[in-house]
């Protein structure tokens, strides 16, 4: 294996991590205020562009799937998929959601119940309907559309055109014209690596405090930044070991195990909880989202300016955009032998269904506790924090200790599989030559597993959840504009390589 490190990308990314983290640590209050000011400006000025991009992403993928390009194989003609559908689904899902899903699926409804969209009265029956539905929308088809576009834009030139660079800049190959190592390509890759570090930093900023709170509940250890630091250490060691072993022995096995364990937790909540309520609510959610899908995707709140769109939909679209290149690179690596159409419907279908299952079980179970008066989840969220509210809801289940322990394990492994995937992709992006089925150097993958923990620790130190949300919007903006270029590049390349038949 003839590999060499892209010293420019490697050095620039490490420098950027420290240039951002060190000032924030030295002046946490000033840093938090500056990030919040930047968030408000970007959300206000560019929010409508994020909303339009979500609509465009779905339409673009539907066009590709049903066009003459849908049958194109990502690999050699007739080649069988490298991974089974179950393992492929598990790896793309674990990489795409992470432990952030476990946090938001359990508690997101509470924010919508108190401040619902469309001018609905707070804490009303109508508010409950939207509270149970909006999270499924935010983690649904549009999210996975943002993930799928870079996947196809990278996978096509990598597998079909045989360009031996597994990097984000490959998505714009049509414009590079053989200058895959030129300054434009390097700048695109640098933007991607910063977005990935920021996106994964935000995700770990959501999941680590939850894992720390779960460990505190199980062991009695006092919760605080010290315990969060310990949790990060555990996750770094776990995903360092996983990424060191590679995709087949590390990431694949962790993903397979975690999907199975997560399904067991969801099934237990369904059986041990208010089964009929969960089933009725789930069916109602699917109807609500399906009936209002276009409205939810295009709502910009131009008349009331309630802030709902900027605080939630724009934030989520920014998160998916920042994460999209990483997920795209990773899903590219595991999608050899699948057609463009398979990848589109697989990512949109499996990804959406997987995320929905968590919201429909854990989220609606907590909503039931609130509405039945069993647990004041919202009160705990308001006076303490979301992590303790989640634990209070889980405490009402039979064999709560075992459920909470399993929930904690799933969170840790989700975090690990997300970050070992991120480490793998960062190493790939900073490697000059990488052919299909070839892995970056082990030391390189392991190095990034530790390096990407620096920024999330900084975000938790200076302000926790809100600062993590702010960071992801800021780093996503450059990738949003690159996204338009990659869509054009993919279509132009496909039309050039597969011209329409002449009548």
Describe this structure as you would to a colleague.
The chain is mostly helical. The protein has 19 helices and two strands. The protein has helices at 7-26, 28-66, 85-97, 100-114, 125-138, 141-160, 173-176, 183-219, 225-272, 275-291, 293-298, 308-334, 340-372, 377-383, 386-394, 400-429, 442-451, 454-462, 465-497, and strands at residues 73-74, 338-339. It has a two-stranded antiparallel sheet with strand order 1-2. α1 (7-26) packs across α8 (183-219) and α2 crosses α6. The chain is globular.
Rg over alpha carbons: 22 Å
Largest sheet: 2 strands, antiparallel
**What is the string of helix and strand elements?**
HHEHHHHHHHHHHEHHHHHHH
Residues in helix, %: over 70%
Alpha-beta classification: mainly alpha
Give the number of DSSP strands. Answer: 2
Model regions low in confidence, pLDDT < 50 over at least 5 residues:
none
Oligomer: single chain
Q: State the helix count.
A: 19
| Straight-line distance between termini | 47 Å
* Binned strand content: under 5%
Q: Overall mean pLDDT score?
A: 83
């Amino acid at each position: 294996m003839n590999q060499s490190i892209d010293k420019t990308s490697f050095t620039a990314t490490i420098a950027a991590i420290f240039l951002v983290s060190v000032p924030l640590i030295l002046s946490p209050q000033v840093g938090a205020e500056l990030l919040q000011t930047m968030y408000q400006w970007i959300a206000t000025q560019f929010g409508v562009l994020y909303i339009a991009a979500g609509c465009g992403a779905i339409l673009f993928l539907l066009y590709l799937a049903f066009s003459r390009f849908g049958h194109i194989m990502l690999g050699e003609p007739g080649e069988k998929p490298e991974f089974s559908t179950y393992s492929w689904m598990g790896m793309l899902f674990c990489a795409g959601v992470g432990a952030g899903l476990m946090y938001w699926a359990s508690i997101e409804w509470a924010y919508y119940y108190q401040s619902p969209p469309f001018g609905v009265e707070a804490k009303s029956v109508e508010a409950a309907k939207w509270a149970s539905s909006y999270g499924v929308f935010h983690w649904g088809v549009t999210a996975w559309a943002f993930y799928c576009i870079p996947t196809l834009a990278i996978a096509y030139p990598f597998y079909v055109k045989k360009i031996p660079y597994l990097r984000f800049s490959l998505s714009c190959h049509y414009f590079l014209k053989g200058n895959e190592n030129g300054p434009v390509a390097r700048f695109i890759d640098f933007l991607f690596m910063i977005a990935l570090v920021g996106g994964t930093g935000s995700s770990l900023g959501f999941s680590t405090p939850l894992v720390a709170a779960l460990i505190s509940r199980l062991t009695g250890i006092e919760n605080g930044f010290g315990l969060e630091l310990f949790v990060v250490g555990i996750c770094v060691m776990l995903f360092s070991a996983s990424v060191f072993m590679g995709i087949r022995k590390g990431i694949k096995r962790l993903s397979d195990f975690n999907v199975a364990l997560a399904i067991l937790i969801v099934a237990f909540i369904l059986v041990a909880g208010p089964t009929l309520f969960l089933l009725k609510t789930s069916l109602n959610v699917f109807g609500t989202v399906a009936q209002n899908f276009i409205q939810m995707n295009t709502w910009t709140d131009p008349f009331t300016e309630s802030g709902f769109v900027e605080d939630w939909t724009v934030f989520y679209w920014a998160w998916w955009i920042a994460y999209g290149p990483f997920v795209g690179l990773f899903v590219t690596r595991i999608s050899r032998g699948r057609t463009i159409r398979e990848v589109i419907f697989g990512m949109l279908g499996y990804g959406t269904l997987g995320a929905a299952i968590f919201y429909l079980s854990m989220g609606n179970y907590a909503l039931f506790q609130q509405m039945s008066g069993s647990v004041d989840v919202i009160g705990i969220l308001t006076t303490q924090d979301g992590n303790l509210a989640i634990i209070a809801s889980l405490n009402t289940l039979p064999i709560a200790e075992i459920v909470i322990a399993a929930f904690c394990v799933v969170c840790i492994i989700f975090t690990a599989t997300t970050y070992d995937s991120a480490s793998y992709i960062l190493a790939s992006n900073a490697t000059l030559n990488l052919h299909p089925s070839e892995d970056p150097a082990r030391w390189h993958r392991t190095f990034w597993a530790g390096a990407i923990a620096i920024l999330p620790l900084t975000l938790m130190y200076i302000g926790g959840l809100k600062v993590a949300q702010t960071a992801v919007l800021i780093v996503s903006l450059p990738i949003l504009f690159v996204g338009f270029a990659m869509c054009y590049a993919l279509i132009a390349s496909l039309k050039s390589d597969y011209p329409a038949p002449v009548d």
